[in-house]
Amino acid sequence: MASPGGPGPQFSPGTDRRGRVSRYRVELPHAEIVETHRGHFEATEYAERRTGWKGRYLAVRDLVLGTTLSSTRLEGERLNKIRALPIFSSDAISSVAYATQEIMFVLVVAGASAIKWSLPVGLAILALLAIVVASYRQTVRAYPNGGGSYIVAHENLGVTAGLAAAAALLIDYVLTVAVSVASGIDALSSINGEFRPIAVPLAVGLVCLVAVMNLRGIRESGTLFAVPTYIFVFIAGLAIAVVLGKVLGGGENPLAAGAPRHQLQATESLGVLLVLKAFANGCSALTGVEAISNGVQAFKAPAPKNAATTMVWMGVILGALFIGITILARHLGFIPDENDTILSQLGAEAFGDGTVLFWVLNIMTAGILVLAANTSFNGFPMLAAVLARDGYMPRMFHARGNRLVFSVGIIVLTALACALLVAFNATTTRLIPLYALGVFLSFTLCQLGLVRHWLRTRDARWKRSAIINAIGASATALVFAVIIEAKFLEGAWIVVILIPVLALVFWLIGRFYKRLQRSLFVSPDAVLDMKPSGESRVPIIVPVEDITLASVMTIGAACERSSEVTAVHVIVDPDEPSTVEERWLRQFPSVPLVIIDSPFRTIADPIASYVIDRLHAAPHEVTVMVPSVEVTRWYERPLVNQSMSSLRKMLAPRRQVQVVAYPFDPGSMGRRG
Question: What's the predicted TM-score (pTM) here?
Answer without folding.
Answer: 0.74
